[in-house]
Amino acid sequence: MGTSQSHEGGIIDSDCEEEEEEEDEAEEQYDDALGDHQKSGSSSGTHKGLDEIDAKLKSLKLKYSSYQQQGNPNLKNPVKLFLHIGGNTPKAKWVISEKLTSYDFVKTAKTNGNDDELDSAGWVLEVGSKVRVRVSTEMQMKMFGDQRRVDFVDKAVWALKFLSDYEYRNFVTLFQNCLFENAYGMEASEENKVKVYGKEFIGWVKPEVADDSMWEDAKDHSTDSAPLKGSRGSIEEFEEAANGGVQSLALGALDNSFLVNDIGVHVYRNLNRGINGKGICVKYDGGGNASNLTLKKTLLMRAETNIMLMSPANKGKPNATGLKQVDIETGKIVTEWKFEKDGTDITMRDITNDTKGSQLDPSESTFLGLNDKILCQWDMRDKKGVVQDIARSGSPVLHLTQGHQFSRGTNFQCFASTGDGSIVVGSLDGKIRLYSKASMRQAKTAFPGLGSPITLVDVTYDGKWVLGTTDTYLILICNLFTDKDGKTKTGFTGRMGNRIPAPRLLNLTPLDSHLAGNDNKFHGGHFSWVTENGKQERHIVATVGKFSVVWDFQQVKNTSHGCYRNQQGLKSCYCYKIVLKDESIVESRFMHDKYAGSDLPEAPLIVATPLKVSSISLSGSGR
């Protein structure tokens, strides 16, 4: 286990090639002279030597300008191209790849699969002879407005430095327009943006006009000067072997948590410092190996004495025709349920508890189900209220108590519930819909997509904040609004009107995204876990390849956080802690907050890989 230390800092041309020493020296002298000039000007009564400083500034500016013009004065879209080498080692640095080149956004046609990297029609960014990449969020483009610089990924980590603020801003605008067209298949006109997002969400397109008052109410209790990343002293951990083949992690809020692998369900004891194996395993089918069982979802129920296991019906397909109910106390599969509606077998893509804390209820017999166009609740009792008998012939049928089948393709992918049973649903088109606990028929609020499918959603216990996971970023949505009577409400209870805050994005830096490896897609974005009113989640965690990435939730909400300075478009937070493992991570989750120690404000983070399970205490704060 380790932590990541980013080397993405400022680019100094003189570190790259001796050929540029003259230019860099002039540039540095210009900056120094300008700084001296500004200091002198700001001190009352200090005018000595100003004429000489001004003369020096003019001569340096002339020298620097003429140097640029010597290359190619007619060069369109001139930039300097840099390459990052050395990865995450102490020798990591930026080197110049092309000291003066040009970029262009080129509209391409479909390549019929001849080019694996550019197999979709759309806009492509070309930089000199070194870079040709389709414009998408997979580039992990990061903007540095104060440096007139952008960093991005294309098989390596690159940076562009622009010669003027105008050229930088023009590039960012062109990039965002191309990104919109590639995502939605239409030109990035004002009319089309309204068509995609709706008038109510125009602030998502123009964050500068969005109502951020709800974000501004968040106070940041961390310090900008203390980096969250790279502090080894802030992590304690112990780990143990997981007997291989780990597929799922089911954390309990009571005495035990559970790890599911090829053999069965392994029981772990919950402690303030993490989880510890009890040496107990509930094996499938009385001990038979179930290596062919690929789990889609696990769900704890009935005061965490039962665990539901849902597996895809067909290999490579996400939907399941039923699920297994395992009684942890007896160590047996007590029921194999099947999904049925109006006498017809149906499949489910996802299942979840009725509420954030309902797994603690010993009498719980219902849970929620989802497929691409059905949102419903299942009941393990029959219509007369009696639990069905496993001894009857065939698999018992779950009773569909309430729900709705949507006629048009909603492309539901995932869902989660709040503390009071309200439901948030993520879709293939990137939309996130909110349903009140009273009705599953019509969404109270539908947040537009940003062009990427939502693979997982989570919501805080109080329903005020919604988190969506995509392959390349997390999206954090403020679900609060003020109604016409001045009352603060959530999008689960009413329509939010036109004062909807713009979301925040949680990204990896281009360097960290590249270092995460080939399997560098985000998955499993979750808030830390509380099940009581009045308590606030403290962190957000997600997995990317061998990285478990943790953000300080309070810091992300803070509008004045330094990460957001000099950003154009939606604000992105790049301040996080990385826990590095030696193999791809299956799942990362925080334990219930009751297991936070007296000396640590957050419960331990549990990280499961195919071979190991680790318990990690995070004592550092965000930067």
Summarize the structure.
Residues 14-33 have a biased composition (Acidic residues). It is built from 8 helices and 40 strands.
Oligomeric form:
single chain
For the record, what is the CATH homologous superfamily label of the largest domain? YVTN repeat-like/Quinoprotein amine dehydrogenase
Number of helices: 8
Name of the level-1 CATH class of the largest domain: Mainly Beta
Domain count: the total is: 2
Principal-axes shape call = globular
Strands across the major sheet, in which order?
Answer: 4-3-2-1-7-6-5
**Biggest β-sheet: count, sense, barrel?**
7 strands, antiparallel
Under CATH, the topology of the largest domain can be stated as: Methylamine Dehydrogenase, Chain H
- How much strand content do the residues show? 25-35%
Would you identify the regions where 5 or more consecutive residues have pLDDT less than 50?
1-6, 14-51, 61-70, 220-233, 286-291, 384-393
Q: What is the name of the CATH architecture of the largest domain? A: 7 Propeller
Distance linking N and C termini: 21 Å
Extended strand count: 40
**Radius of gyration, CA atoms, in whole angstroms:** 27 Å
Percent of residues in helical segments? Answer: 10-25%
Report what the structure shows.
With 623 residues, the protein is of the alpha+beta class. The protein has 2 domains: 107 residues, Pleckstrin-homology domain (PH domain)/Phosphotyrosine-binding domain (PTB) (PH-domain like, Roll), CATH 2.30.29.30; 393 residues, Methylamine Dehydrogenase, Chain H (7 Propeller). It is built from 8 helices and 40 strands. The longest helix has 22 residues. The protein is globular. 41% of the residues are buried.
